Amino acid sequence: MALVTRELSLQRGDRLLVEGLGIGVEAGEIWTVLGPNGSGKSTLLLTLAGVLRPAAGEVILDERRIDRWSSGQRGERIAWQGALPSAEFGFTVRERLELVPQQARNPADALRRLDLATLADRRLFELSAGERQRVELAALWLRDAPLWLLDEPTAHLDLRHQVVFLDLLREEARAGRSLIVVLHDLTQAHAIADQALILGDDVFHRSGPAAELLRPNELRDVFGTRLHVAQGPEESALLPAYHPPR
């Protein structure tokens, strides 16, 4: 098992976000973390990465508490993607990827895999937010960390590159990597997740197989809106019900 939480509680300021969380993430699993704004999703990822300390409980990574690993050891085991970093230093895309520590793959392959080859010599501050997001995802892909923590990785991406990246996540999971992904798009979560963790108000949380939890009735109260499943010929989508009930 790659990662376990035991009676984990998270707090921001005086507000308790999560209480008594216990999950186990296996190698090759994709977990999606869902919930409204302010429910603790990003705080959870930072705690799982060992950046923040929990209010109570513990995070176990490879049978050792996360705070017992040095920052370098955590870096070997965990790859993190969060908010876009500053682009003020004027690096090109190629230079940004060449600076990634602990590379296990070729930067040229990362350029191709994330559709960045034509942007390789552009400076980061010249790129759109979506293009910069792809650069950071390419930097993540260069690492061989067995656990990926991703905070809204498809934010800023256009539709085609969302699909490309979701396919990449499935590919990495099939290779044995563990992925914990914060998403706001329920259809994307429905498409890729093996397991789901739902966070809500008043320290509410629920976890289990995604096929059981990502259903309209399970999510309606958490998000405060009605949902419905749109069934296509090959796949289904979990969407807000924009029309008021009759």
Radius of gyration of CA atoms, rounded to a whole number: 18 Å
Structural class: alpha/beta
Low-confidence stretches: none
CATH architectural label: 3-Layer(aba) Sandwich
Report mean pLDDT, rounded to a whole number. Answer: 92
Distance separating the two termini = 48 Å
Write down the overall geometry.
globular
Strand content: 25-35%
What's the name of the CATH homologous superfamily?
P-loop containing nucleotide triphosphate hydrolases
Number of helices: 9
Give the CATH class: Alpha Beta
Strands in their spatial order, largest beta sheet: 7-8-9-4-10-11
- Give me the count of strands: 13
* Sheet of most strands: 6 strands, mixed
Helix and strand run: EEEEHEEHEHHHEHEHEEHHEE
CATH topology: Rossmann fold
Number of self-contained structural domains = 1
Description:
This protein has 246 residues and is of the alpha/beta class. The protein contains nine helices and 13 strands. The chain has a six-stranded mixed sheet with strand order 7-8-9-4-10-11, with helices on both faces. Strands 1, 2, 3, 5 and 6 form a five-stranded antiparallel sheet that branches. Strands 12-13 form a two-stranded antiparallel sheet. Strand 1 and strand 2 form a beta hairpin. Helix 4 packs across helix 5. The chain is globular. It starts with a strand and ends in a 6-residue tail after the last strand.
